[in-house]
Amino acid sequence: MGHATPATQALSRAKLAFDLHEYAYEAGLAQIGLHAAEAIGAEPARVLKTLMVEVDGKPACAVIPSDASLSMKKVAAAFGGKSAKMMESAKAEKLTGFHTGGISPFGQKRASPVAFEQSALGVERIIVNGGKRGLMIELAPADALSAAKAEAKPLIADQ
């Protein structure tokens, strides 16, 4: 399996250190992030899922723990809007250049604003999608924010 994706290339160009984890992606699973966490033996809170949303009709990218849910109210506020909704899969794929289940916050075809859930960044290393199904990138939270030109914001629903 080749490891070069627009996501890994973006991190390499930025000269950021990262490790790759591969797992057998299973299509049709509702909880892709939780499946990935289990498959690579990582805590779900460290494995982040990348969700494409629309805030007041404009694209944005929210990165949250795989065991959490988005709060659309918090997402709208994080991106300076009034309302937020999930982006349709086909639109997300066209915009990012990645397939659903393989969307990464790094190296998207058309960059949109990115926010990471702030409570997820208090660990030494986080794991995010590597730009293709079954490929995960592990890196330092500060490097992830830098590479994605992202901000840390509250995004998740109260558990």
From TrEMBL:
Enzyme class: lyase
Origin superkingdom: Bacteria
Boundaries of every YbaK/aminoacyl-tRNA synthetase-associated domain copy: 36-144
Keywords attached to this entry: Lyase, Protein biosynthesis
Keyword Protein biosynthesis: yes
Enzyme Commission number(s): 4.2.-.-
Pfam families: tRNA_edit
SUPFAM superfamilies on file: YbaK/ProRS associated domain
Similarity comment text for this entry: Belongs to the prolyl-tRNA editing family. YbaK/EbsC subfamily.
NCBIfam families assigned to the protein according to its UniProt record, in alphabetical order: YbaK_EbsC
Protein name per Swiss-Prot or TrEMBL: Cys-tRNA(Pro)/Cys-tRNA(Cys) deacylase
Source species of the chain: Thioclava marina
